[in-house]
């Protein structure tokens, strides 16, 4: 027996709760930007994925008009920092709706480092930083999907194994439903089956 829902007959927040509780786990883009006035911004976005590898493009979604989106539109640049388990408190605190003009880096006490090819700072303690230039945006209802072309990748050597990022060393956080978070848990190694086999 299933409970059936028609999204057209539900309030948007009810649909949001159903979708974010079932599309799990969701990786987190810890997006750093800088405003046109030079104020650094840092916010987690859990609607995030890879869009393309040739060219290399990642995407995150801004639900509503948030500082991250405005800054990307104004400057054409951003950084996706991996949100690691040891920084869960900082990641959560940067989701606070601070007033415009307040830097989450400063308010939360997150150490920055300079980007290599973009003006937006990177999170110094994040093991991975994807520096991006804005490719395009797509407005969908109350949300805007931001596509960024990855122009530089910086990875902490301690998370590399034979030149490859190792998941158990990255220790990525993920979002679930409600106020729930997830850590990596058990990693399964299972090769795809070739048709010829």
Compact overview of the structure:
With 197 residues, the chain is α+β, with helices and mostly antiparallel strands. It has five helices and 14 strands.
Which terms would index this structure?
three-stranded antiparallel beta sheet; alpha+beta; 197 residues
Characterise the protein shown here:
The protein is of the alpha+beta class and 197 residues long. Helix content is 18%, strand content 37%. It contains 5 helices and 14 strands. The strands form 4 sheets. It has a 7-stranded antiparallel sheet, with helices on one face. A 3-stranded antiparallel sheet has the order 1-13-14, with no helix packed on it. The chain has a two-stranded antiparallel ribbon with strand order 7-8. The longest helix is centred in the first third of the chain and has 11 residues. It is globular and about 55 Å long. The model has no long low-confidence stretch (mean pLDDT 96).
